[in-house]
Amino acid sequence: MTTEPTTPAAPAPAVRRASTRDRAGRIFAGLSTGAGALILIVLAAVAGFLLLEAWPALTAGAEELTSISWIPDDGSLLTYVGPLIFGTLVAAVLALLLAVPVAIGIALFISHYAPRRLSSALGYVVDLLAAIPSVVYGLWGGLVLAPLVQPVWQWLSETLGWIPLFEGPAATPARVMMTVGVVLAVMILPIITAVSREVFLQTPRLHEEAALALGATRWEMVRMAVIPFGRSGVISASMLGLGRALGETMAVLMILSPGLTYSLALLLAGRQQTIAANIALQFPEASPLGVSALIATGLALFVITLAVNMLARWVVARRADFSGAN
């Protein structure tokens, strides 16, 4: 008597679905890990490229560096890079001081004061500002804004000239750091406004209603509920804007009359220069060693940007109780 071989039973549909989900989960986890690792690889590659290309200038002697036309007579790379770092920080901080209060006001108006249709239209307009190329901002700043603000800068220098920031007489035309700060503020305004607006809109409705129920006015509700909730988001938005201002090139190049001094005079021409604008200005006619020196200044800008972002992460982490995650 022979027995027929038995065929194995087909796996249950539920088992097949669980196996498929596990496989998809492993694939997604691998892709996510690879994407995160790719960011670190790209960052390391950029840092390695800057360091490798800047190494000839970093190791060159004073006699070699003085052969570069724009290096100071003492042949010190630090003497050359220092004023550029100073000018970059002055331009970025000035833009941030001008842009942040206006951006917060616009974000609050769009999120809590404007009618729905008006807020939607204003949101689109603010987002469109971010799409304008920097060269257009440079043309606008040099050809339109500089002549318009010249009387204002002249009045500032005559009225507040005893303050080092407004030391005068104001340069004519107004291709000075103050004009650059205004243009950079307009450029980073949509970034800070858009992020702050989205953060303010995430304020829990119950918090706002509770404040109003206790008799708070709309401003008191915004001050007690909305602004504390969105504080870390505003800080993050400001750091994003600061990063944009630190690396801006064409607008600064087309407006500012450059100089290499440690000067806080915002209304005098030929006093400051930024790293990015200086690279764009000197690169076309630079020798191989000159290119290496310019890349060394780019390495300094890379370190500054990295430090700014790390500082922003630390500040946001300290303000985690206002992030809305709790």
From TrEMBL:
Q: Where is the ABC transmembrane type-1 domain?
A: 85-312
Q: Looking at the keywords, is Cell inner membrane present?
A: no
Q: Name one GO molecular function term.
A: phosphate transmembrane transporter activity
Localization recorded for this chain is: Cell membrane
List the GO terms this entry assigns under cellular component, sorted alphabetically.
plasma membrane
Source superkingdom: Bacteria
Q: Which UniProt keywords apply?
A: Cell membrane, Membrane, Phosphate transport, Transmembrane, Transmembrane helix, Transport
The protein here is known as Phosphate transport system permease protein
Q: Which organism is it from?
A: Actinotalea ferrariae CF5-4
